[in-house]
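thread from #wetlab-drylab

HS: before we spend reagent money on co-crystallization trials with glycyl-adenosine-5'-phosphate, can we at least see a predicted complex? here's what I'd submit
DV: go for it
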Amino acid sequence: MNGCWDYGPLGVELLANIKNEWWKSLTYREDIEGIDASILMHPKVWEASGHIENFTDPMVDCKECKARFRADQLEDAMCGNKAFKGRKASKCMEEGKFTEARQFNLMFKTFMGPVEDSGAEVFLRPETAQGIFVNFLNVQSSSRQKPPFGIAQIGKAFRNEINTKNFLFRTREFEQMEMQFFVNPSEDKKWFDYWKEIRMNWFRSFGMNPEKLRFHDHDKDELAHYAKEAVDIEYQFPFGWGEMEGIHNRTDFDLSRHQEFSGKSLKYFDESTKEKYLPYIIETSAGASRSFMAFLVDAYYEEEVKGEQRVVLRFHPKLAPVKAAIFPLVKKDGMPEVGRKIEADLRNSLKVFYDDKGAVGRRYRRQDEAGTPYCITVDTQTMEDDTVTVRERDSMEQERVSISKITGYILNKIHTA
Ligand code: GAP
C-alpha cells in the first residue's frame, strides 16, 4: 500500500490548521464562497472534464519482474527484481525487457449500487475542481455573487499514481485546497497576476523561507489540456524543487464542456451591461498535504544550546499543533492546582498541553520538538504574586505575566504573530 499515509495526533492538528488558515484567507473575503461537493460524481462529469481521455500517464511493464514504471521516469527507477538488487530499470529497457508504452488512466474506479458492471462504474475524483464547476450557477444565483467572484473547496482527491515517491509529495490519496475565480474574459490576465501574488504571499505570511520559494512558469508544451497560462509555486524540498500549488488560467474550457455535456447553459447574464457570457476561470490549486510537508521541513531546525542539541520546529504560531504548554515546576505546594486552572481557561479556545513530569528543561525540549510556541511555568514566585513565566520557543526568552491576563496574552500573541 504505497502512497497512502495516516496523520498522527500532532500531524492532524498541523494539517487542520493549514486548511483552516487557507479557508479563512479565501472564504472570509466577500467575493469568495465555500462549498463541499461530493467525491463521487456522475461519470459524465469526467468525460466533460477531459479526464477520461487525457488524464493518463505512459506506462511500461517489465516482462521479467512484472514491475510497472512510468515510461517518462525510467531514469530514476530501480529494477523490481530482488535478484538484481541495485540494477537500474533503464538497463532492463536497453535489454528489451519492457512492453511497449501504454496509456494508463490515473482515476480510481469503483461501482455504484449492487451490480458490478460497466454501467455502474464511477470514479473517485482526481481533483476537487470539477465539483465547483458543476455548481457554478447554483452558487452564483443563491449567493447573488457577480463575476469577478470565486468558489473555494477543500477535500480529498485520488490518483492512481504509477510511482509514488518522496513521502507526502506524490501520494495516491491526498487533499487539495482549490479556488476557482470566475471573471469576465477580458480581465483574465489581470486576475491571473493578482492571484499569483496573493497565493505566494500566503506561504510567506506563515514564515516560509522566501529563498526556498519560487515561481515556475509553464512553457506552452507543459500546459495542461485546459490551460492558457499556468504558473507553479515551488518549494525547495530536501530532494529538490517541487510544486506545491498551481495557478491556472483555465479559460472557459470547463464551463463550455459542462454546458455541452449537460445540455444546460452555464452562461452568466450581466444585468448592468446586458452582456451574456461564459466566465473565464482563474484557478488556485494547492495540495494540502504537499503544503504540510513544506511547512514541516521549513520549520525544522537543529541547534546547539548550552552544549546540548536542541531540535525545534519553528512553526508559525497559527499553524503550530499545540499552542501552549503548562508546567507546574514541582508536583506540590499548590502549583499543580494553579496550573490546572490556567490549562482549563486556555482550553476554551486553544489546543494546549499540561505536563508535570520530569525536569522542566526536558519538558521544554519536548515542546520544542512539537513546535509549541509558548510554555507557561508555574513556580514559587507564582504562589507569592500570581504571575507565571512565559517562555517563547524560538528566542527562549522568558517574561512574567499575571495569571489574570494569561489567556488574553497568549491569544493576542498568536493573533498578531
Ligand atoms: N485542479 C487542478 C489540479 O488538480 P494539479 O497540478 O494536478 O492541478 C494541484 O494538482 C495540486 O495538487 C498540486 O500542486 C499538488 O500540490 C497537489 N497534488 C497533485 N497530485 C498530487 C499527488 N499525487 N500527491 C500529493 N499532492 C498532489
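DV: The mean pLDDT is 94.
HS: ok that's useful, forwarding to the group
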